[in-house]
Amino acid sequence: MPDLNRTSRRLILRDQVDASDIRSFTQSAGWDFLGDIDRDPERGVFYEAKWDTGDGRSVHYIVDEFADVCYMVVANADSDEAEETLSHIAGSLAAWTSEDLLNDCYVHVYPAGWAKSLLRLGAGAPLRAEDSVVSHVVFSSEHEDASVRSAAVWAMVYTAWPEFKEAMVRLARTDPDPQVAREAQLALEQLTESGVIEP
Question: Which residues form the domain of 38?
């Protein structure tokens, strides 16, 4: 389950960005390295590195093995300041824009590519719901392939938008694949417990 208490969107980095690029960027930005957390797949813990920007913000680099993406996220009480820091990062490191993430979803016709692009879209979604993203994820939740419907469930979880409640309830109650139905039920429970969705 991804962290639902984020204070910024997740800035999804392009595949060509590697550890040396991150290190070089954070050093040139003058951020203090605070440490990292080793991955622990058995406990669902992803690798994470953390920096202090010196102005009350912290920047986190996360290797999300579930969504198969690497991203930067900013922790700060002020979401505008967090977004400002993300824009600075995006100006220096190759990253997916929100538009790129959505457009990439429309180029995949085979289930594997469709599912991967859906997870990336969910992981990189903005903090507030966007109609175009909601429409595509809900449309994908009705796909004939169970792997695409499953990816749609997890894209909904990553966004943590209450706008997906109806689609998740439908999947939990009526999806023909028992695994997808279980995932949707689990997602509903987690999002309800976290306060994203009202019971």
Answer: 11-90
Give tens-digit pLDDT for 138-193. Answer: 999 999 999 999 999 999 999 999 999 999 999 999 999 999 999 999 999 999 99
Q: Which residues pair with 14 in a beta bridge?
A: none
* Residue 27 burial by Cβ neighbours in a 10 Å radius (0-12, 13-18, 19+): exposed
Residue 50: its H or E element: strand 47-52
Domain boundary among 40, 55, 90: 90
Q: How would you list the strands of the sheet with 32-37, edge to edge?
A: 11-12, 69-75, 58-64, 47-52, 32-37
- Indicate yes or no: pTM above 0.70: yes
pLDDT digits (tens, 9 = 90+) for 28-49: 999 999 999 999 888 888 999 9
Mapping DSSP to helix (H, G, I), strand (E, B) and coil, where does residue 91 land?
coil
Q: At what angle do helices 178-193 and 146-159 cross, to 10 degrees?
A: 0
Do β-strands 32-37 and 47-52 pair in parallel, antiparallel, or remain unpaired?
Answer: antiparallel
